[in-house]
Each structure stands twice: as C-alpha cells, then as structure tokens.
Amino acid sequence: ETGVTQTPRHLVMGMTNKKSLKCEQHLGHNAMYWYKQSAKKPLELMFVYSLEERVENNSVPSRFSPECPNSSHLFLHLHTLQPEDSALYLCASSQAHTDRRTDTQYFGPGTRLTVL
Amino acid sequence: QKEVEQNSGPLSVPEGAIASLNCTYSDRGSQSFFWYRQYSGKSPELIMFIYSNGDKEDGRFTAQLNKASQYVSLLIRDSQPSDSATYLCAAQTFGNEKLTFGTGTRLTIIP
C-alpha cells in the first residue's frame, strides 16, 4: 500500500458511456497526476495538478476531463471514449519540495479500462 | 524530443548473480532520476532515486549516475526470483513535477 487508492480497479465501458475514475491520496501530498499506460509504450503523463491547480496538460483529447476538488482527491471524467483509449490509468501523488530534486511520485494501483 | 531510453529486454539473470539495468536520457536539463519496479498487472513502485553523480546504495540495489554520459544504471546484487519484474527509469527536470519514463526493461531471474 502506497497511500494512494484508485477506484474502480476495473472498468468496461461502451463508447457512448460517461464514467469517472477516482483517486485519493492519504500522504498529505500537494501534487497529483494522471498517467496512461499502454502496452509497450512509456508511461504517458496526462495531467498534473499542483496545489489543486492544473499545471500541465499534455495535449490530451477533450474526452478526458480531470477534476481536482482538493489536494487529496483527483478525478478523471471519461466521455465518448475510443477503443484505443483502453489502457491502465494510473494516479500518482508527490510532495513538491523546495529543491525539487526528490519529488518522488507514489502510484496508486491503477484502473484497467476497456472501451468496447 | 526529450526521451528516456531503455533496452526492453527480456534480460535473464541467474539467481544470485548481479542484474544490471541501463538507461540513457537525452535532456541535459534532467536532474533527478528514479527507478521503479512494476510487477505484471501492478502499478509502479519506487525503488530509489539519484541526483548526484556517482553511486547510491540501498540494500541490494545500487543506482549509478553519470551526467557527462547521460547514463543511469541500476544494479541488483544477489538477484532473487522475486526481483523478476519490469524496471522503469524516469528522469525529472529541476523545478518541474513532470517525470519522463522509459519503456522499461523486463528482468527475469532464473532459479
């Protein structure tokens, strides 16, 4: 257990569905992240929230919509996804330090998403 | 394109031997480097990080950083079957939360 939880762990959805992924961190961190992990590809950073403000969006399609209501919770709202969006979605959190050399990210268990 | 490159493997090492995992990075602005271990179907878990040139040891693990050669490595001594996993290398630029990951090296320890 890393102190980062994600629900649901598995999700199957149709292309017209709307669903949300939830992440919660119990580590007192001030930054949270969404990553996508597809087979044989590097982990892809999707969104970064630092102090509850979105600081990076790596040109992610608008069918993915993040929400960070407070420093402990992060959501990823999904709408009209495509089959190629099937992947493992990982949430992570970190504590941004002054020197930024040791901003270690701790990952949740992930949500395995399948889009039919 | 800022990249982190790893040999995808699989790398097979006999039990008890030293496993050596390598990583190169293209962005000279990268300051900190992280090694994560990921078991099949699980999420990445941090093994260790390094940001100073040289070696850093933690138990059976040693991370090595050579900024001049833009090279990071992870040595695992006395390899155990439980070390069989995919090892991810990640680089971070100073003052930036973003981690750039490699594709990972799959390591198999042969009993």
Structure description:
By secondary structure, chain A is mainly beta. Chain A contains no helices and 11 strands. Chain A has strands spanning 4-7, 10-13, 18-25, 31-37, 44-50, 53-57, 64-70, 73-79, 87-94, 106-107, 111-115. In chain A, the strands form 2 sheets. In chain A, strands 2, 4, 5, 6, 9, 10 and 11 form a 7-stranded mixed beta sheet that branches. In chain A, strand 4 (31-37) and strand 5 form a beta hairpin. The radius of gyration of chain A is 14 Å and the shape is globular. Chain B is mainly β and 111 residues long. In chain B, strands 2, 4, 5, 9, 10 and 11 form a 6-stranded mixed beta sheet that branches. In chain B, strands 1-3-8-7-6 form a 5-stranded antiparallel beta sheet, with no helix packed on it. Chain B is globular and about 40 Å long. The N and C termini of chain B lie far apart (40 Å). The mean pLDDT of chain B is 93. Classes of the chains: A mainly beta (116), B mainly beta (111). At the A-B interface, strand 5, strand 9 and strand 10 of A face strand 4, strand 5, strand 9 and strand 10 of B.
In short:
The complex is a heterodimer of chains A (116) and B (111). Chain A is mainly beta and 116 residues long.
**What portion of residues of chain B belong to β-strands?**
over 45%
Radius of gyration of chain B: 13 Å
**What general form of chain A does the structure show?**
globular
- Number of H- or I-type helical stretches of chain B: 0
**How many strands, which pairing sense, and closed or not: the largest β-sheet of chain B?**
6 strands, mixed
Protein structure class of chain A: mainly beta
Q: What is the residue-averaged pLDDT of chain A?
A: 90
In N-to-C order, the SSE pattern of chain B is EEEEEEEEEEE
Top keywords for this entry?
heterodimer, A: 116 residues, 4-stranded antiparallel beta sheet, 0% helix, globular, B: mainly beta
